[in-house]
Amino acid sequence: MTIYDLAELAGASSSAVSAVLNGSWKKRRIGTQLAEKILRIADEQGYTLNQQASLLRRSKSTMIGMVIPKYDNRYFGSIAELFESMARERGLFPIITCTNRDPELEIQAARAMLSYQVSQVISTGATYPDEISKICSVKGVPTFNLDLPGTLAPSVITDNYSGAKEITLRIFNNCKKKLGCTKPLIFIGGRISDHNTMERLRGFKDAHQQLGIEIIETNILTCGYSPEKAEVSLKDFIAKGGDFRTGLFVNSTISLEGVMRWMASSGHIGERQPAIGCFDWDPFVVLLGHDIVMVRQDVSSMLKALFALIDAEEQSHRIIEIPPIFPVIE
Hints:
This is Substrate-binding domain-containing protein. The protein is 46% helix and 13% strand. By secondary structure, the chain is of the alpha/beta class.
């Protein structure tokens, strides 16, 4: 069964059949009724598009690749889901792979995608996005960065600085209500070497400065992103005489998991629970107490900006910052 056989059975042109099978029929303004008919006949005939052979006949691939660091995180999971949907709307076939923040796996993933001749590679939260850009540029494949910026391709990220500063000010406000005073806060999670953590720290420190509160450097616990590291870091902080009777700025919900685990095991819950702010969002925050401030990264706006760059075939090195959202918690 060939594409020409399907065209004859459907009473359509081979180009129309091809557009329906590769998902670009809406752009061609092919009617829904005809598209459904072609897909039904293809299914009845057991027709499967040979993507590799089809690619050889086309000048441009319809596959688009994304490297993503985690799946078990609401933020990255929502990025993957919406990315797939928006790619398919454009007649593109999305390929997504999770690398668990391993730089070597990120490079391997990029090379594998290039072997399938993807049209673009999106580096999401990549450790070294410029290394991926270098590899792809050799093959003439454009790259785009999401969540963490690079210097060799366009980047779409959250405005981490303003979001972190606002969270910090809100934590201070909750601390004042709870404790009757404001003391230097604790910052936990993230890597001091990555852009997002540095920008969030900058907002955190500037909020202290705005209120005339001196930063305590030993209160800054940039221990990485895993729950286990956050839990161990807090244990060490207390063991060394750290003051926990203040507020906490937590760098992600991944770190928050470890923070909550330690607080539960050490009895810092209920009235003893400190004011907390987290640069991430989870709807279950309403169950964690009334003194938790969270910020939601605007995934929809980020991906719209990303696809605008892709559609325009832009290859500048600019960074687009998308303001985060502060949901109202009743």
